[in-house]
Amino acid sequence: MIAPSILSADFARLADELAAIEGSDWVHVDVMDAHFVPNLTLGLPVVEALLKATSIPMDCHLMISDPDRWAVGYAEAGAHNVTVHVEAAKDPVRIARDLRAAGAKAGLSIKPGTPLEPYVELLREFDTLLVMSVEPGFGGQGFIADVLDKVRTVRNLVDTGHLNLLVEIDGGINRDTIEQAAEAGVDCFVAGSAVYGASDPGKAVAALREQARN
Ligand code: DX5
Ligand code: ZN
Fold it and tell me: Which of 70, 114, 130, 193 to pair with 29, CA 20 to 30 A apart?
């Protein structure tokens, strides 16, 4: 699966930018609060408008300090998957249950420096694990290949039936890095600059999907 991130899109033309990636599996929307991360993007009112503008399932990545308060609102608005950061969530189990009760999939994200092991049991409550392969906050950064160890660990836990979730990776995914991420066992690839930095975003999505299959 490919999930283009609109962080690298033209924010003055978001409806057109969504139309350009029609046929993508998900569209990835980065919510940043200038507190959990040193950048500010958009929030629920914009997500609500984007949901009206597209039928692509929306993957909301909440890089915010108080997801316990805000996450369920994105599920109620109609997001397909809502991801919170383990470093920010006070009660991740409750968040996951609230998200699912509101009809969304529940996602948990871990920053590059955060170990996976302490959270393996917690992952039973979640539908997706978003492994960050850059420090969250900005598009266009270089891929941190070390995080692929976490991907391999969770892939193994899924393949042996210990966990049931989708493995997603976010940050620095492009034509040079997607194959190693695919080999490590990623199911869903977020790509911002590699899609919206291309002259034809739709073709860039198709090319990435093809390359992930190789
Ligand atoms: C970074 C965001 C990413 C970002 C990825 O904090 O979570 O989703 O858009 O951008 P690229 O693909 O350019 O690294
Ligand atoms: Zn993201």
Answer: 114
- If you average pLDDT over residues 177-201, what whole number do you get? 98
**Strands 128-132, 81-85: parallel, antiparallel or unpaired by DSSP?**
unpaired
Q: What is the pTM of this model?
A: 0.98
Domain limits, the chain:
2-213
CATH topology assigned to domain 2-213: TIM Barrel (3.20.20)
Cβ(133) to ligand 1 under 6 A? Answer: no
Q: Report the separation in Å between the CA atom of 139 and the middle of ligand 1, taken as the mean of its atom positions.
A: 4
**pLDDT surpassing 90 at residue 154:** yes
- Which of 193, 205, 208 for mutating ligand 1's site (highest number of atoms within 8 Å of CB)? 193
Task: Give distance in angstroms: CA of 101 to centre of ligand 2.
Answer: 23
CA atoms of 94 and 92, how far apart (whole Å): 5
ipTM for the whole predicted complex goes beyond 0.95 = yes
